[in-house]
Structures are given as C-alpha cells and as structure tokens.
Write a structure and sequence with these properties.
heterodimer, A: alpha+beta, five-stranded mixed beta sheet, four-stranded mixed beta sheet, 1 helix, 17% helix, B: 57% helix, globular
C-alpha cells in the first residue's frame, strides 16, 4: 500500500516538474532585454551578461529578495521563482537598469 | 549733491580694492578654485549614484539593500582603511581583496578620476578626518 502511494505521489509530481519553464533575460548595452516578463511559480530565469563589463542582478521586492552577485561577459546566473508576486529587478552597477517579473500562480 | 558724495566714495573704495586684489595671486587663487578643489563634490555625486544602494546616503552602511547582506556593508564614516585599500576594493570589488562578494568591482564602470574622487570623498566624511578638521 505504501509502495503504491509513493509511486502515485512520484508520478503525480512528474508533470508538475515538467511544466516549469526556463527563460533567459539578456543584459546588453546596459539594459535588460525584457523590460517586463511574466512567468509562473516554479519557472527559472537565466540572467545572461552579454556586455563586455560586469553586471549584477538583485531585487529587494517582498515577493523575492535576492542578489545574484556581479559577473562578467559570457556568464549567467539563474534563479527560480517559488512565490507569486511582482518582482522589481535591478543592476547594482548600473542604476538605470530595471525590469519587472510578474510571477503568477 | 550731498547724497552722491558718499555713493561715489563707496564705489571708489570697492574699485580700489578690486584693482589692488587683481594682481594678488592669493586672492586670485581663492576666487578661481582649481579643478582639484571640487573633487569632494564630484566624489559625492559618484557616491550618491553608485554606492548609496548598500552603504546608505550617510555612508553608514545602512543602504536600502543592506538588509540582504551578512556581513552588512561597511560603515565608511568610521573606516580605518587607507586610501590605497579603498581604491583597491572599489576597483576590484570585495572578491579582489578577500571580502564580501556582494561588493561589485567598479573599475570598468567608473573612470580613474571618479574612483579618486570618491576615495577623497570617503576621506572627508570620515569621523577621524572631521574631528581633525575641528581640532579635536
């Protein structure tokens, strides 16, 4: 009985996992490629630095507070959004760089 | 006639003073400040544009992003670090001097002049510098 339950639970989780999507936001010419991005809970966003200098990605929003640090051209940082809400994303090195991520249920 | 005499006297006094000070290098230096004189002002602009996010408007380490970081951003008003050290951490970031990885490297974003200006600004807002200026 326990084995059947575990198997059912495992199978039930597979579709949920496969539903999660991945998005890439480019950082080029000191701006985010997407001024606004709408995603779902569980989705991942890759922030890729295409500029020949360092970028940073952070947010102080209540829905998600994070700092992915500073990284050079060609590198990226990834973050998974686990709660719904509106997240304002910024670059600490270039204060004019801003974008919004809307995370829906 | 009685009124215009004092007016001419006062005007003459100022004209004589201006003529006298025109050839005095000390007076000229005081009036026309060298570019270096304003580096604290320029440094404050750099600080308010790039540094306040973490270090706060008062440079006390209480910027709006400071809550994210452990350890908290440095209180720069009480820093005992040298100008050379400050320049290095600004240029290379925290990783460059074995400190917080959240301090970004600024050498690709700021000019050499901006870095020197902000280092100078950090000197003049330091409590020790202010106490010394007050003669304490």
């Amino acid at each position: 009985m326990i084995v059947k339950f575990c198997l059912f639970a495992f199978l039930a989780l597979i579709p949920l996992h496969s539903m999660a999507q991945e998005f890439t936001v480019d950082q080029q010419d000191k701006s985010f490629s997407e001024p606004k991005l709408t995603i779902k809970v569980g989705d991942k966003v890759h922030f890729k630095n295409s500029d020949p200098f360092f970028h940073n990605v952070f947010s102080l929003s209540d829905a998600k507070t994070f700092d992915l640090g500073s990284y050079p051209q060609g590198q990226h940082r990834t973050i998974t959004f686990t709660r719904p809400g509106r997240i304002h994303v910024e670059c600490a090195i270039h204060p004019q760089m801003k974008m919004t991520i809307e995370v829906k249920e | 006639m009685n009124i215009s005499l004092p007016v001419f006297s006062i005007a003459g006094f100022f004209l004589l003073n201006m003529a006298a000070s025109a050839g005095d290098p000390a007076v000229l230096d005081d009036r026309i400040k060298p570019v270096e004189y304003y580096k604290d002002v320029r440094g404050s602009i750099v600080f308010k544009t790039y540094c306040v996010l973490c270090h706060g408007t008062k440079a006390d380490g209480k910027g709006r992003a400071s809550k994210n970081y452990v350890p908290e951003p440095a209180n720069l008003t009480v820093s005992t670090r040298s100008d050379d050290y400050k320049e290095k951490i600004i240029r290379k970031g925290g990783v460059g001097v074995g400190r917080s990885p959240f301090m970004p490297p600024w050498e690709q974003e700021l000019t050499n002049e901006q870095i020197r200006d902000v280092v100078y600004y950090l000197k003049v807002i330091n409590i020790k510098y202010l106490d010394k200026a007050k003669g304490l």
